[in-house]
Write a sequence for this structure.
């Protein structure tokens, strides 16, 4: 199981790093920032990349980092909350979004689910290694 979790940590990190760089078009996608500036400003996108680096840095040490893994779980749940807030409180018009940018719309649709799945992986890892 340890090798699968190691792979999962690396995958979570790469998803953050390359997901942000790809969907933000190297920080040039101003539409992404305009839809949710509180979360996806250039600073916010940079912090998502930093979290990805943190996941990778712990990937081979996760059995000894249970408290940090729990922080990763909480961080992912915060982003799940932002996705729920975006779709159910801010209620953007997905047809308008799609017409403006398919790439941005895809990102906004999948980021919450991505964070939920990796958050559950972090929760599982924490449950395995907590002391």
């Amino acid at each position: 199981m340890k090798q699968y979790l190691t792979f999962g940590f690396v995958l979570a990190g790469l998803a953050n790093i390359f997901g942000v760089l790809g969907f933000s078009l190297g920080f040039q996608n101003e539409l992404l920032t305009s839809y949710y500036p509180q979360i996806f400003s250039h600073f916010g996108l940079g912090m998502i990349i930093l979290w990805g680096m943190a996941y990778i840095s712990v990937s081979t040490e996760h059995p000894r980092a249970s408290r940090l893994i729990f922080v990763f779980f909480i961080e992912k749940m915060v982003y799940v909350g932002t996705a729920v807030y975006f779709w159910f409180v801010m209620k953007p018009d997905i047809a308008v979004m799609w017409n403006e940018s398919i790439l941005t719309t895809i990102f906004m649709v999948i980021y919450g689910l991505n964070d939920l799945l990796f958050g559950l992986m972090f929760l599982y890892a924490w449950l395995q290694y907590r002391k």
